[in-house]
Amino acid sequence: MDSPLVLALATGLGVALVLVVALLAAVRHLRTTARGETEQARAEAAALRTRLDDLAERLERSTHRDAPAVSDAAYVITDAGRAGPPDRLDAVGLPMVADRVVLNAALGEPLVKAVALGHGVRRALSAESRNRIRFEVRRETRRARKQRRREMKQAWRDSRARAA
Predict the structure, then answer these.
(1) Model pLDDT for residues 81-130, shown as the tens digit of each residue
(2) Residue 89's beta-bridge partner residues?
(3) Is 111 exposed, middle or buried (0-12, 13-18, 19+ CB in 10 A)?
(4) What angle do CA 102, 84, 91 make, to 5 degrees?
(5) Contact 96, 102 (CB under 8 A)
(6) H/E segment holding residue 75
(7) Where is the composition biased (Basic residues) (predicted)?
(8) Helix (H, G, I), strand (E, B) or coil at 89
(9) What values do phi and psi take at 146, rounded to 5?
(10) Could you give the residue ranges of the DSSP H alpha helices within 67-163?
(11) Does residue 87 contact residue 56 with C-beta atoms inside 8 Å?
């Protein structure tokens, strides 16, 4: 075998190896980042959940303490003629917001971000993506190899032309 051909083959294999190692490092970095962001989202959700529980407990205590005593007298007809149940009001007289609504607003955005990140990572690491990347790397390696062969042939022709 010609030594330039062996050198070109070794260089091509070296480049392919470097590309594979770089790809593996990138995948590992993405996986670590995804885990970190997922853990951070879970920690935020837990903190928000405890904060929401504390606020709900404080609100419950304040409504029990500050609520005026309501008698069940028959002459109180404030809800007469209404079809639905009476609205729940807090101590100030403002309508109460359900805990589910507050929880949905507080956890909605971080949860959506975490789910979207998980979907993206799962899609990036799918078999179809890996095959597409493998195909592109193989095609680029072949193209580079052909280009090097053309350059080597041209260099040989130039050196023979100078020698002659």
Answers:
(1) 555 555 555 556 666 677 777 777 788 888 888 899 999 999 988 999 99
(2) 95
(3) middle
(4) 50
(5) no
(6) none
(7) 140-151
(8) strand
(9) -65, -40
(10) 99-124, 127-163
(11) no
Residue that is written with structure tokens 């885990």 in the block = 35
**Residues 76, 73: Cα–Cα separation, whole Å:** 6
Side-chain-facing half-sphere of 106: CA atoms under 13 Å: 18
Give the closest residue to 26 by CA, choosing from 123, 121, 139. Answer: 121
Cα separation, 95 vs 112, in Å, equals 28
Length of the chain as a residue count: 164
**Residue labelled with tokens 């041209």:** 154
pTM above 0.70, yes or no: no
Residue holding tokens 């040989």? Answer: 156
Structure token digits, residue 49:
């959940």
The predicted structure's pLDDT at residue 5: 86
Residue 67 has pLDDT above 70, yes or no: no
Residues 6 or more apart whose CB falls under 8 angstroms from that of 107 comprise 45, 48, 49
